[in-house]
Write a structure and sequence with these properties.
Structural class: alpha/beta
Strand content: 25-35%
Length: about 190
């Protein structure tokens, strides 16, 4: 079931572009609505309350806001995977992610100090489209020996089948707060 306040906001302020692109930069990933982020985080807490997690992980940049809010409410550390290797990062795990909207590959990295075999992580991101970001996180966690307990997405574009890719990689807990069934003819159709 979709989070109603989020669905309403997508229909009000979301914009559709050709090629299956949904722009939500008025409230999620350019200008952010902190109250909405709090509501999103509370819903993630409800949906993942049965999991034993000790860390929240995301990829910079759009997943940071909901992850920070969630980390604050759960009193857990939040680690964001970087898209560039900082000069101060000496030991790290690395993977490659293909960006749907930017149409290019990016290397993603996380310091070995912040992802270990002792970690039981919850991955949070803004969109689930083709599953590429999630697949990169799976790769990093496998390198570290960390356990992915679940993945949460603010918005899932169901018609791009990312969920199936992540499930094929062994992820059993995937929660999306709003599921877009279709963007055909630039009409936003949200699953009930």
């Amino acid at each position: 079931m979709a989070l109603k306040v989020l669905s309403d906001r997508i229909l009000k302020d979301g914009r559709c572009f050709e090629g299956g692109i949904l722009k939500v930069d008025r409230f999620v990933n350019h200008q952010m609505d902190p109250y909405l982020m709090k509501q999103i985080s509370i819903e993630f807490i409800k949906r993942f309350s049965d999991l034993n997690i000790n860390k929240i992980i995301t990829i910079e940049v759009s997943g940071i806001a909901p992850s920070i809010m969630l980390g604050y409410l759960l009193e857990l550390p939040v680690v964001f995977v970087k898209k560039k290797v900082p000069t101060t990062m000496e030991h790290f795990y690395q993977s490659t992610v293909t960006s749907f909207t930017k149409k290019r590959d990016s290397n993603i990295v996380i310091a070995k100090d912040y992802l270990t075999a002792d970690d039981h992580v919850l991955f949070i991101d803004d969109f689930l489209a083709y599953g590429n970001a999630g697949k990169g996180i799976i790769d990093l966690c496998r390198q570290a020996g960390a356990t992915i307990e679940g993945m949460g997405f603010i918005i899932e574009k169901e018609f791009q089948h990312g969920r199936e890719l992540l499930q094929a990689e062994g992820i059993t807990r995937i929660e999306s707060l709003a599921i877009i069934e279709s963007l055909d003819n630039c009409e936003i159709k949200i699953k009930d």
